[in-house]
Amino acid sequence: MSEDQQAETADDAPEDASEESEEVTGIQDGDFVKLAYTVRTVEDGTVVDTTSKEVAEDAEIDTEDYDFSPRIIVVGAGHVFEGVDDALVGAEAGDTGTVDIPAEEAFGEFDPDDVRTISAEKIDEDDRYPGARVQIDGEQGHVETIIGGRARVDFNHPLAGEDLEYEYEIVEVVDDREEQAAGLLGMYLQQAPEVWIETDEVEEESQVEVESDDDDDEDAEPEFETVTETVEKETLYIEATPQMTMNQQWMFQKQQIAQDLMDRLDLDRVIVQETIDGMGGMMGGMGGMMGGMGGGGAPADVEEALDDVDVDADEIVEELEEGDLDEQ
């Protein structure tokens, strides 16, 4: 290498080192951050999503049964639009910004072919009106018009063709694993259940090959014995709520959600607990009822009432026989 080349390399080295040091500063992919945001359409400023209750109220969005608070997301995990993920990398807690998301990177361009005319019979009678959200053959859409027995349905996403403006603030970087777990569950299920992490000692069985004394018999099949050992497992406990057990996403994707939690939080397992409270005096009442139905001792007042009934069995038999003769 010539002296000139060595000089050029020496000049470039500090710059390269500086660039490498800059790449690893700030928030990185895989970090958990708490994000406050508002998403609007570029065309007319319609609020699409927000973590601010004040913004929602100003936009006349129904705020009942909705948790307005910053969300915990994992940077680079696809929890936000790709352009927002890119903006978060290298940023710091407290930073704010606005990212424009073109339609093709948001909910796609509007496709005229996805507006189709179908038989109105495919739509439930209660949903046969313009604007109704419907599901036809597994596709989500909304009714545009219904004329006679035909319906025109738009199967595009409601925001297809819309450019979006994503305004955000990085509230904080979240390092606590329990808070990270609660945040991920809140993102998936719209409501964060109670969670905690414990290190449990668990007994595990494994098969171990037994060493053979007969070294000359190479054809002998290996023998195994069961060995029990105690191992430590990092366990995430989730206290299931009635809302969680009825959540559609949880019912159909609990395995994937649990695996995501284990992978991102370096856990060994997830245990979901469900607490069922007692019903108070109801069971006692049912026990008394079942005793009567099953032939147990009847209450005294019932027995006394039966004793007071004047019934002649012979008269009943005679009346039944006379009835049979009359029918013949």
Automatic annotation (TrEMBL):
Residues 30-109 form the PPIase FKBP-type domain. Residues 1-23 have a biased composition (Acidic residues). This is peptidylprolyl isomerase. It comes from the Archaea. Residues 1-29, 201-226 are annotated as: Disordered. It catalyses: [protein]-peptidylproline (omega=180) = [protein]-peptidylproline (omega=0). It is an enzyme of class 5 (isomerase). GO terms for molecular function: peptidyl-prolyl cis-trans isomerase activity. Keywords: Isomerase, Rotamase. Its EC number is 5.2.1.8. Signal peptide: none annotated. It holds the Pfam family FKBP_C. Belongs to the FKBP-type PPIase family. It comes from Salinirubrum litoreum. The keyword Isomerase applies.
